[in-house]
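The data are quoted verbatim for completeness:
=====
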Amino acid sequence: MGDWLAILLPGAGYGPVGAVLRLPRLVIEAGGAEVVVLDYPPRHSQEWHTELIREANSQVAREVEAAAARRVTFIAKSLGTAVLAALDPHATASAAVEAIWLTPLFGEATVRAGAIERGWRSLLVAGDGDRYHDPAGHQAVREALAADSLILAGADHLLEVPGDAIATLDRHRQLVEAVIRFCGTEPS
């Protein structure tokens, strides 16, 4: 196994092939990281959220132990940010951990507090046209973590500019450039 493990935490209904996760994954893979995607349990019970966090913690612990990586990068989108904020930090205690929070749910106090409590080096990416974007929550996390931050003008929860493919492409390019800077990778 390599020295660098990246773990993708998808959104609800937004999987790893969506551009917002796929593009950072391409950057990180080009930099030499092994990438794994967390699998979420099916939504079949009232305790789904508890089951989701328990299963995510188990998967992360297994993957980190199996990889024996010195560097772990989490890439989380939307629901994935809520999962990331609830992860047991002991599962990654043997590695240097960093996180890329894509369209984070920092309007939720538990997600905001969890991100701050983890204290990981972070990149926060949101669209100012995203109905879930909470500017005050984003700012609080950015300040607490001294995090890198990218707010994409006009971008929605998919980091797309509705009705404008060229502007969407530009926002995705900005995302890629931010991930390259954050991870210290060079494009090939």
Observations:
- The chain has one domain: 4-183.
- The beta strands are 4-9, 34-37, 71-77, 96-102, 121-127, 148-152.
- Residues 48-67 form the longest helix (20 residues).
- The chain has a mean pLDDT of 92.
